[in-house]
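Supplementary Text 2. Reproducibility record for the structural model of the 441-residue chain.

All settings were left at their defaults, and a single model was retained for analysis rather than an ensemble. We include the record here because the model underlies the residue-level annotations in Supplementary Table 4.
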Amino acid sequence: MTILRRKIPKFTKSFWREEHNLPSFSPLSENLATDITIVGAGITGITIAYLLAKEGIKVVLIDAGKIIDGTTGYTTAKISSQHGLIYDELIKNIGLERARLYYESNEDALAFIRQTVDELGIDCDLTNQDSYVYSTSKSSKVKVEKEADAYKSLGLDGGLASSEEVQLPFEWENAIVMRNQAQFHPVKYLSGLVSEIQKHGGQIFEDTRAGDINRKGEMQEVITTEGHHIQCNQVIVSSHFPFNDFEGLYFSRLHIERSYSIAARVQSPIPDGMYLSADSPSRSLRSALGLNGEKLLLIGGEGHPTGQSHGETIENYEKLADFGLQHFNLEEISYHWSAQDIITLDKIPYIGAISSDEENVLVATGFAKWGMTNGTTAALLLKDRILQKENPYHDLFDPSRSELTTSGIKSFVKENADVAKEFVKGKVKRKEKELKDLDSD
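Retained model, structure tokens:
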């Protein structure tokens, strides 16, 4: 591992944030009144701010740190409805029709991103790609076959992939493809939306941490940790992990995982398409363009529950580098970064009223590593809710839904107990440094 360790850059840097200059914004320094306050400037917060500002609604968007500096800025940036091997599981847990709704919501999000890029002329390296989940063991081969049956039942554009389609430089058992998906540069895309928010009169504040939400008659009031008040009609909490999580006990209903990524120059050809392994530890592959137009390979994986990593953090990057050396003749690692992802009980995000008794505080969380589509879905759904329009996905994502059987919930809470305890400790101590990457999406 000594040779590999020398290949890992000393400082953690996200390819997306380093490869694009972002605008900066001042902290909130006075009390404000607005229509909608949005907490968390990741893909959901920025997208919903853009959608509402375009409708003539006054919006204030705040973030505890910098915009796009949470999970959105540290993603693999696949825009896909293929979320691993999820559809066989969804059909079993929530039925065929609701599983199809989940797929359609993500396809709608993908279509929205394409349309927005086209309408606004955003240069964000958006390319159409087929998406693959591949197996390298007999056990995962069976899972892929079951997923292919689920695709057939749902009528999805995909199925078992042929050997001509899959371009992996190593042996694999089988693979499932979902066609006509996409990838992009998320920071470039969201920078375009940020410009539009400002153009339509929206206000953005960085280094502004929300500390509490109080109800003031028919109004809501967001109180920052610096003591400033933002009075509004409704609040949207899109801060990755809800900062007011005790309302609805979200800490007991969300599982937190950390995963790792590297961007590297390689000698071997980079395959077309986006890839994810069905085996553990997972491996995620896609290409990306550097500033000089050079094609880089992004390798992700080595996920584990937050707080339960074995060994040093750098070892996770070394394992990804070893994979790159072995299969792609890796030459140099330009960037490496990690992200924390939130997963719900049933792997379907919570999007809607934060609790059944509070209709004017809305939440969007639990995107289960697929925030580019699920986060966009959240923005589209919440926009319709605020504008009092019908949305076919309201019930599917309702945070007050009954997710699993009682035994399933007990099992989840038991497995998640250590993470929940650590998070509650952190909430009580309120250590800003430890919580920073849970405060924006």
